[in-house]
Write a structure and sequence with these properties.
Radius of gyration: 13 Å
Number of helices: 0
Largest sheet: 7 strands, mixed
Strand content: over 45%
Helix content: under 10%
Shape: globular
Order of helices and strands: EEEEEEEEEEE
Structural class: mainly beta
Amino acid sequence: QVQLVESGGGLVQAGGSLRLSCAASGRTFSGYAMGWFRQAPGKEREFVATINWSRSTTYYAAPVKGRFTIFRDNAKNTVYLQMISLQPEDTAVYYCAAARSLEQTMRVSGPDYWGQGTQVTVSS
């Protein structure tokens, strides 16, 4: 079965850093775009970042630009989200997603596959 499994979440103080990982298994994600979404309590899920297969294109949501970096290791079928200068507003469950097109990974209704999420909590 196809699985996306996130890891790397945790508790960090404001200004700190975390690196999230999303490992895909059950099939190869060759050619797929992969991205990250997040959902805070009481809020809708929102787009965070995405990257295409060749790593030539990335997009970021405005609140994370300059602080988060998405990258991937296709040999490991894994996508990462490096987060620095974390703020309490970044607190959320972070989900990875995969889709055949990059555009699909920029809207919550688009991805073909979702992970179960990993909690990121940023304290002030």
